[in-house]
Amino acid sequence: MRNKPTINKVQLDAIDKQLIKLLYDNARTPVTELAREIGMTAPSINERLKRLEENGAITGYRVDIEPAVLGYSLMAIVRMRQLPGKWKELEALIQAIPEFVECDKVTGEDCYIAKLYLKDISDLDPILNQVAELADTNTAIVKSSPIKRRLLL
Predict the structure, then answer these.
(1) Per-residue pLDDT tens listing for the chain (153 residues)
(2) Which residues are bridge partners to 118 per DSSP?
(3) What Gene3D superfamilies does UniProt report for this protein, alphabetically (predicted)?
(4) Could you tell me which of 57, 43, 61 has the C-alpha nearest to residue 12?
(5) Which CATH architecture has domain 67-141?
(6) Rounded to two decimals, what is the model's pTM?
């Protein structure tokens, strides 16, 4: 996992927030459409976008993929507590298994909490068997996600 960069707190005005919300809903929205929605000129919007990127408020633009369309019908949350002296190996293993799409290093009894996508429930044990050599695990299959990723404004 990467170390967090130093973050400087940024003050966003109402226009910045509106711009971020529009891009959050559709990162491919043309600048001309953003300008029309906000009631500003395209060059002004470009300047704001550049400033938001430079100050780190906007860190990138992304595409959301629906895992089920790619054949991944199950999602699991895996809590892991590494065995003594195995954290570096465990972290490297988690990064090497492509089905792990997110992982957080946490405080408490567990050391890592990861999100894992599976095409079939039979895919779970082979992955967990690899992890079991380095950590104790506790796995939950996700039934639904009442809150997907959402904007913090």
Answers:
(1) 445 556 678 899 999 999 999 999 999 999 999 999 999 999 999 999 999 999 999 999 988 899 999 999 999 999 999 999 999 999 999 999 999 999 999 999 999 999 999 999 999 999 999 999 999 999 999 999 999 888 888
(2) 74
(3) 3.30.70.920, Winged helix-like DNA-binding domain superfamily/Winged helix DNA-binding domain
(4) 57
(5) 2-Layer Sandwich (3.30)
(6) 0.80
